[in-house]
Amino acid sequence: MHPPSCQDAIVLDAGRLFDCLVGMMKAKIFAILAVAVVAATGCVKTVSDTHAPSVSFARDRVEGRYPRSVDQVYQAAFAVINKNGVVVTEYIPHDTSNNVRSFQAKVDECNVWVRVEADADAKTTLITVQARTKWGTTNLDLAIELEKEVALQLQSQSGS
Fold first, then answer.
1. pTM above the 0.85 mark?
2. Where does the pLDDT of residue 119 fall: very low under 50, low under 70, confident under 90, or very high at 90 and above?
């Protein structure tokens, strides 16, 4: 007898079957991860009553109250944003009184929303500044910086 050659050897087809199963499992795992990523991202309501894509649901807004009129605070906020970036859209919500104004802007490639409204006591004005990066994550530092600049702008207006 002669030793068995490669042609005479017994070959199992299990390798091809497992290759197919592994490929299907990789596809399923990828699909599950894709669904998880989509579920983790979402939309966040902005201070101008619109929605924006969001990856993080952390704090992204700051508020300030000033003993000024809505128009004075709005003009100061508008000046600060124009100094640091560009206003994209202005909003006057139709479901509120004329004591609410807001706008969306771009500052340092970040989306910024500003809302100015009369406070409950009608003697002060509330400003809310919200900032998110272009990827939808929060940028609280930028929101704080812009709100402080509005305060400084209001202070310089009263001093002149």
1. no
2. confident
